[in-house]
Amino acid sequence: SAQVSAGREAFVVSVHEHRWLHTSELLASLRVFGAVWRVVPPTPTISKIESNFNSFRSAISRAARRSRASPAGVSSWYYVFEDDIGIVNRSTVAHEMEQAEARAERHQLP
Fold first, then answer.
1. Given this model, what pLDDT does residue 5 score?
2. How many of the other CB atoms lie within 10 Å of CB of 83?
3. 3-class secondary structure, 81
4. Alpha-carbon span 4 to 29, nearest angstrom
5. How far apart are CA 22 and CA 42, in angstroms?
6. Over residues 16-38, mean pLDDT
7. Which of 30, 45, 73, 84 has the most C-beta neighbours closer than 10 Å?
8. CB burial class (10 A; 0-12, 13-18, 19+) of residue 38?
9. Between 4 and 73, where is the model more confident?
């Protein structure tokens, strides 16, 4: 079983308290994230598409601020979720994340 990763954080875009609690508990139960943060979307805008775009942009901005605040040389991974996720096979999540991160690191620009 995977250990909690201090270098892996989750940001959950969520308006509704009960959905946030469910999603944060689900992500915490996987034991692959060092932290799970809630991102409340900005005030709704003209359309749902624009609201979703602004919500994800807000989550990515928070992740970028956390990344810039990290000590030099510390590698972190930031994941953004909506509050309606489901996990099909819990036993493979950590392995699949590690594989995806390794592939991304191999393709990273110097």
1. 59
2. 20
3. strand
4. 10
5. 21
6. 93
7. 30
8. middle
9. 73
The helix/strand/coil state of 96 is helix
- Rounded Cα–Cα distance for residues 8 and 67 (Å): 11
Write down the residue that tokens 């979307």 correspond to: 41
pLDDT at 16 over 60: yes
Query: What pairs with residue 39 in β-bridges?
Result: 13
Question: How large is the angle between the packed helices 17-30 and 90-106, nearest 10 degrees?
Answer: 80
The single-letter DSSP state of residue 50 is H
Tokens read off for 32: 């692959």
CB 23 within 8 Å of CB 85: yes
pLDDT at 88 over 50: yes
The pTM score is 0.81
CA distance 30 to 8: 12
Is 80 exceeded by the pLDDT of residue 96?
yes
Q: What is the dihedral of CA 44, 46, 52, 57, to 10 degrees?
A: -80
